Amino acid sequence: MTSPSTRPTGRGQAATLVLAGTLTIMAGATVAPAIPGIREAFADTPNADLLARMITTTHALAIVLFSPVAGFVVERLGRKRALVTGMLAFGIGGSSGAYLPDLTSMLVGRAVLGIGVSLIMTSSMAMIADLYEGTDRQRLLGRQAAAGSFGGVVLLLGGGALAGLDWRVVFLVYLLGALLVIPALAFLPKGRTAKAPAPERKGAAAPATPKVPAGTLAALAAMMLGQVAFYSVPVQVPFLVEDHFKAAAVVSGAVMAVQTFTTGMVAMRFAFFRRLAGEYSLAALSFLAIGLGYLVLAVAPGIAVLVVALLIMGTGLGFLMPNLNNWVLAEAPAHVRARYAGLLTTALFLGQFLAPVLTQPLVSSLGIQPTFAVVAGAALLVAAAYHLGGRRVAGRERAAAGAPADPDAERKAGKAAEPAAGAPAGGSALTTEPSAGSPATS
Q1: Angle, nearest 10°, between helix axes 337-366 and 58-77?
Q2: Do 149 and 281 touch, CB atoms closer than 8 A?
Q3: What per-residue string of b and e applies to 399-435 under the rule 16 or more CB within 10 Å gives b?
């Protein structure tokens, strides 16, 4: 394995990994404005309304189903080869809507797109964990989350403009994913997954794959719950703006863009915020902001107050994504990082898929703003749970170390635990050249 100081750290490498992260946002956002046109074009098809709406969800279901095994695929193929394969599947499956003749075949194409997204996210996250450590990793994860947020705004606006020309043209945007193969081949290093630790004595059984730590499970749960909260906004806020506040559809897009932009700006500064607080504290702060934002949404009398609510929520979401990504990758053993990244992908898209499933029954029975009040209460309970969980973990660490009680122990422990940028870390998972004859070379 190579030391951190000899790993490639060029701007081309970092930019490629950041752009790869934006493809996960592009998967669903780009095609949404084309749905009315698709429904009209296939009006004679049985269940056309349902099938047209499934264009925006089929890829997410495919991601949820495939991501648990995506980590094993990435370990077998190697990071770079899996990433390139995912980008090609993204381009082919995503653009298939531009030329496939019916809704059924288009849904198959969306499933291929989902498999591509799963490989892209799993392999790129594992590669980030391999190549970057400490503050460098935190900074890159923050930039990736920010790029996804800013890209989401551009894609929503651009997708709407293209849909105005012809709904099939929108699908050609997915070819950008295939074009990323060029910088991926040019800038990303060849490498392979680190091997599992060898048995201590000859003839002994190899150590079993470690169980997922409780902290990682907490991060995965936060990812799923956070995505439910995040995607409940685009699912429900447009109806509040247009039906209750009698504003135009363009206002819906504008107010949601406020949240997305705020999320990106906060995510850009994640490395700074991570130095101030530990993972549990940042998760608690994220859900506190989300809960307060939904509480304001629940009582908002008009657009101006609604914008304030989305600013508060955007701040919390800006902490959430890079914090949880960094949390899981930091705890993952080097030889199974890709599997942990696959679990992270599953949690993220499961939350997206569940958002309308969980909120729509409440909206049908209570109304939109009372539903926001319920979501606010749930988010505040989650915030309290992560705050208490962080205090409990900090207490155990103090007891193990025999240190005196210190209310700032979690922050100090988190700050001390982060290696300085470029400092060696045990178990690095990437080698510049795979060993000869290995089946897992990139």
Answers
A1: 170
A2: no
A3: eeeeeeeeeebbbebbeeebbebeeebeebbbbeebe
Where residue 201 falls (left for φ over 0; alpha for ψ -120 to 50; beta otherwise) is beta
Contact 173, 30 (CB under 8 A): yes
pTM attached to this predicted model: 0.75
Listed in sequence order, the residues at least 6 apart from 426 whose beta carbon sits closer than 8 Å to its beta carbon are: 334
Q: What angle do CA 315, 319, 323 make, to 5 degrees?
A: 170
User: Are the CB atoms for 84 and 181 separated by under 8 Å?
Assistant: yes
Tokens representing 267 are 């995510």
The neighbour count for residue 132, using CB atoms within 10 Å, is 24
Distance CA(179)–CA(91), nearest Å, equals: 8
pLDDT in tens, 151-197: 767 766 666 667 667 888 889 989 988 999 999 999 998 755 555 45
Structure tokens at 141: 């994860």
Question: Are 354 and 174 spatial neighbours (Cβ–Cβ below 8 Å)?
Answer: no
How many Cα atoms occupy the beta-carbon half-sphere of 47 within 13 Å? 7
Q: Provide the 8-state DSSP code for 98.
A: G
